[in-house]
Amino acid sequence: MSNVDAVLGHSSSSNTQSTSSEHIESFPRAAAESDLLSIGRDERVSEVSSKSSIEPSLALDDDDEHDLPELDSDDDNLEEDINTDSEPSQSRCPSPTPSIDGDEELDPDELKAGTTDSAESPQVLRTRALRQTLEQLSEDEIERRMLANLEALKNTGFDLALMLDFLCDGKYTTRNATIRYARTALMCSDELPNIFRCCLKPPRWSASAKKKRATGGRKGLAPVAVDWCLEVMHKEMDALGPLLTTDTATDVRAESLTGFTFLELHARMSVVAPTLVQFMDSLPRRRSSPVITVTTISQLMYQNNWSNNRLQKTFSIYFKFKGLTAKGFDVLHALGLVMSHSWISKAIRRMSRMTLDELRELVQKYPWVLTYDNVVILFKIFSQRLENLQKLTSGTAATAYLKPGATPLPASATQDLKEQRAANLDSPITIRRVLDLAAVGNKKLRPYYAWLLLAALIHSPDFDLSTYKFKDHTLLQKPPPLNPLPIGKDAKSMQFLLSSVNQPEASRVKIDATCTITSAIITCASSFWSTLFKCKIWSVVDWAGAWVCGLTFGSHD
DNA sequence: CTGCCCACTACACACTTGGA
DNA sequence: TCCAAGTGTGTAGTGGGCAG
């Protein structure tokens, strides 16, 4: 066996797996780093390209093969190859021949990641050059050469299917750099997508001829394409996991439940899982719906992994507070749209506890207002008996309000209000006093009355303010507000519903009753109210005005 | 009116799942 | 392998609907 033959693996038919170990010893790592291996891929391609430009060649001749440098071998893969010598390895097998830089096969993942620019690879450039030359030939000449190639295949015991199968199989490509080069050229070529497309649906070149379309490869290719799509979409679903996973520490907070939109989710899903989203979007024949796409993917994700439940938790809370029955939840849970019913029950309790904790913290920082009123609940009995009669039960419901940006009331506010009220009871307001107060108020409001009249005139369509010469004059501007209310995010007030108590608020005719109601509310929300006790607001809660208007002021002072 | 069946709710507990 | 989160199932209590 000559060295060249050994390098190219040409020696004999038995020189397949069984000779691997010989090659390993014949071409150690040092040989791979020899001068022969230092030939650059660019040099090789330019050589081929220049040759093809002179005389187009459809197949590499023997000289070409001899000129081809080989890939380097990998020690780890060598061992693996030795150990599995009877089966074709799916991973890179050792090359029995030396290699050159840039002759490595392109891994699909590398191609996807863009680490290798296949479009500009030497193999692609070579194929393009060949194509350019071929396109200058007549159809007859191309046909003649194709027949010559098929004849060459036939003479060597191949046909096109076998040739491609052996080429793509990997067994021989890992052994020989020439075959590997050819495979890379095929895999990275611009022509491959079109080859695949034509296999699925062979084109009709003569539309007028009513001949039957050539038999395509759809039957064999379709299952492969389906498998490939499934593999891609499974990977994308794995990548989608973090997007739909929720944290139980924050999952029932408002910002978590409402902090996304379907359009936003759809856009983010499109980035992480483009194939899956495109697949879902393109299924409806009429028009796609991001909502349905996101919901369907969420259902599948939830089925795959319970922790991917962002949409399910939001839907669960929504349907719960819309009064969906337990049976309804069971159905929707089976459809993968909501969480289980037991989760919902626990989530409601967690929400209540979290809200109360938040309120407990806030009342120590900001002034707060407590309102309460009676609530009447009918316990309806459709089949009444003596021991089981319909009842109309009264209770008290309370709500706490906080406004973080508000100026705290002075500590004497409650006392001042009580004294003012007591004083007014002894000296009711007179008509003259009412008129005096109105006169003072009217003086302040006069510019606003004038502005109302002026605005009606200058904003009428006929006046056309935009064309008026003095439209920017100060007299035509709206006067600044007297006491503008704060607006914006910081000015938003917060509302907390407290637990209702079975103490009729109608018993408020006495101050003692008010205290009883408040005590009952306190008992129901002990953790919150114990904090209020610490804030020494008990005297405020005991305020007499509470039983009149159901309003209690609180302050951390 | 009674008895039976069913629905709903709350709860406990064993089990499953997935991540660390 | 452990642990947290979530699921599934069984049980008890309550009450509505319906037939007899």
From TrEMBL:
Residue ranges, compositional bias (Acidic residues): 60-84
Name this polypeptide is given: Uncharacterized protein
Polar residues biased stretches: 85-94
Biased segments, Low complexity type: 11-21, 47-57
Region (Disordered): 1-121
Domain of life according to the entry: Eukaryota
